[in-house]
Amino acid sequence: MKIEVLFPELCNLNGDISNIKYLQKCMPEAEIIETAIEEKPAFVENDDINLIYLGTMTEKGQEIVVSKLKKYKSRLEELIKNNQPFLVTGNAIEIFGKYIENEDKTKIECLGIFDVYAKRDMLHRHNSFFLGEYEDIEILGFKSQFTMMYGNNEEDYFIKVKNGIGINKNSKLEGIKKNNFFATYLIGPFLILNPLFTLKLLKIMGEEEPKIAFNDDIIKAYNVRLEKFKKLNSSEE
What we know:
Elements: E1 2-6, H1 18-26, E2 31-35, E3 51-54, H2 59-69, H3 73-81, E4 86-89, E5 99-101, E6 107-109, E7 116-120, E8 126-134, E9 137-145, E10 147-151, E11 159-163, E12 173-174, E13 176-178, E14 181-184, H4 190-193, H5 195-205, H6 215-231
C-alpha cells in the first residue's frame, strides 16, 4: 500500500496532515511517500500509488503548486480517468479548476481539469459548520476560507449539503468527485471526523479487509458530533 503526500512542506494548513497520520494508524504497513515541491511526483511514472493526497495551502502556495503541476496535467487527467484514488482538501480543490480570480480581477490560471473557478475575497473569511451526505454516509466538518468556487458541478459534486454551504453560498453541492477523485473545501482532520467515509476510502484504495484505527472510540465520537451538528445552524463570518 502506497500513499503519496504532495508537497507537505507547503500544503499542511489547518492540520490537514492529520489525515495522513490517521491513515498510517489504519494501515501501519503503508508506505508514505512525501514528495517535496522540488521533487518529481511519484505518480508521474508509477501506477501503483493507492492514494494521492493534497492538502490546504496559502494563496502564495497555490501559485507555486499550480506552476509545479501544470507540466503533469495530462498525467493527472489520465489518472483521474483510470480511477486513481485522490483526496484533496481545503483550497487545494481550486488547483484543479480553471483559474483563481483576485479582488483586482487578475487571474491565476490553474490546471483546468474541471470546469469551475474560484474568486478570492481576502477581507472576508467564511467560517461555518458543515453537514452533508455522500451516498449513504453523513459527512461533517468545518470550512474556513477566503474563496468561493463557481461553475456547474452538478454532474461531479462530492457531497450534497444538509447544513451549510456548497462550493459557494448559493450552492447546495459541495466539492468535486469524478471516478475516485475526491475533493472538498472541508479542512482539518477530515478522515478522523468521518470514519465511515474513511472505511469506504480504504476499500477504494484496495485494502481487502479495511479497518479504521480506534474503531469504537472514533465511531462514538462521530455519532456524538453528528447529533450536535444536526442541531446547529451554519455560522458564517
